[in-house]
Each structure stands twice: as structure tokens, then as C-alpha cells.
Amino acid sequence: MTNDNPYDFLPLQPTGRNETDTANTYAPEDMIKIYEQQFLIPVPEEQLTEFLPALKSFYDIDNHTLDVSAIIFEAIADASIIYNHKIKAGRYQLLEGLVKEVLERGEDDQNDAGIDGIDSNDSEEAQAYTLECKRTFFINDVEMPYYFNLFIQGDSYSTLTKQDTLLEQMYWFASDGAEDNEGLEAINAQLTDLGIRAMDLATLYQIVDYVEDHIIDDAMIETLNKLLDDAE
Fold first, then answer.
1. Which of 3, 64, 5 is CA-nearest to residue 37?
2. Position 220 pLDDT exceeds 70
3. pLDDT at position 106, please?
4. Confidence band for 114, pLDDT divided at 50, 70 and 90
5. pLDDT band at 181 (very low <50, low <70, confident <90, very high)
6. End-to-end CA distance of the chain
7. Sequence-separated (6 or more) residues with CB below 8 Å from residue 114
8. Residue 62: other Cβ atoms inside 10 A
9. Dihedral of the CA atoms 117, 121, 126, 129 (nearest 10)?
């Protein structure tokens, strides 16, 4: 870092000046980078009041530019900012083929939910299947694998998360409603080893909420429909 860039801001090339010649303008993808840096650059607490003015000065922008950068991020970014962490859902993998399951009557009535878009027989007698899956997530651009077993019957499904990877451990910590400092410290120690900033409980819970909302996407549903059609 240098004195004129004490926070190690990314060097970005402006596209020009605004209509009133009071601030630089930037390409949309660079506006996203400016927006993300507000949250992702570690700043000592005693320098928090100095950080935002330094960012605006470095890029020669004003508050309106920052407001626009937030709108652009919400509109086109493929990630989400949760406090001081960026999380993004990556690709999915189906690790094995569909496995037919034989269930006792009533066994399939627990812990299920409908998957919008999956075409299958919604009869109580519909064949049940399980499938081993993986979804890759990225927290602050660090790859975080997430393995789960998918159970499908009719128009219902349930997922069973493994307990091996760090992201899976975070899921179970949140699902158990745990609030013990020792458990959180153990998770944060592993995050630190990966170069990811420590999280408080609120951040961890919201990260897990994001993961649950992005386990299954439209592309995965389309593939599942093809597999179910072929199986029938």
C-alpha cells in the first residue's frame, strides 16, 4: 500500500465525468467493484469514519455515485453482500445417478417440500429417489463445497446436508440454533485459515439462509426433470 492509497483500493479506469463535472463515471462492472469494497475491505475501527471519504476521494466520486453503484449491484451482480462478506452460488454437480428407494407407508410424509418446476407424479404411490449432490459456493471468492443428499417423491423433496466441509458445519451450527461462543470460535478459526474474515452469529445465520435458498436452481431442476423422465 502507498500513502495515496492507504486502503489498497482497486485501480479502476473512469469512463468520463458526469453531466455536472463533479464526479467520475465508471463502467457498470467497475461500479460493482467500488460498491463491494465498501464492505469487503478490512478497516480498523478507529479508521471507520475516514474510510468512506478516502474511497470517494480515490475514485473521485460523490454520494450519488455510491447510491447508483448499490442499484447496479442489486440489478446485475450474481452475488450477495452480507455484512462484510460476499457470497455467491457456483455450479452444481450430481455425483451419482438416481437411486430408487423403497419406503414404508407414511415414511415419506416428513420433512418434505415442493420443488417448483419438477415434473413428477404427485401421487402418494409415486416412486421415491435419492441423489447425491454437490453445490459449490464462494465466500469472499474462496471456494466452499457443500454436499447433500436429495430425496424426491412426487412433487416433494427434502435435503440432508452432510457434516464434513466447513460450510456444512456452519449449516448444522445454525440449524441446531447453537449460540455457544466455543462453537463459533471454532468455525471462525477455520474461516481465518482460509483467509475469510470472522463472522458474528447474525452473519453466519444469514450466510446459511443464502445457502439454503440457492441449493437448487432452475438449471438443476431442468436436469432433474430429465433424469426423472428417463427413470420412468
1. 5
2. yes
3. 54
4. low
5. confident
6. 61
7. 155, 156, 157
8. 15
9. -30
Nearest-Å Rg of the Cα atoms of the chain is 22
- The one-letter code for the residue type at 83 is Y
At 143, which amino acid appears? E
In the predicted structure, residue 111 carries a pLDDT above the cut 50: no
Nearest to 2 by CA among 37, 54, 49: 54
For 102, residues 6+ apart whose C-beta sits below 8 A from its C-beta are 128
Cell 452444481 appears where? 92
Distance CA 69, CA 32 (A): 6
Confidence at 110, pLDDT banded by 50, 70, 90: very low
CA 219 to chain CA centroid, Å, is 17
Mapping DSSP to helix (H, G, I), strand (E, B) and coil, where does residue 215 land?
Answer: coil
Backbone dihedral angles phi then psi of residue 24, each to the nearest 5 degrees: -70, 155
Which class for 216: exposed (0-12), middle (13-18), buried (19 or more C-beta within 10 A)?
Answer: buried
- What percentage of the chain exceeds 90 in pLDDT? 77
What is d(CA 106, CA 84) in angstroms, rounded to the nearest whole number?
A: 44
Q: How high does pLDDT run on average in the chain?
A: 90
DSSP string across 139-170:
ETTEEEEEEEEEEEETTEEEEEE-SSSHHHHH
| 1 pLDDT higher than 70 | no
Choose among 26, 40, 25: nearest CA to 79. Answer: 40
Average pLDDT over residues 27-54: 95
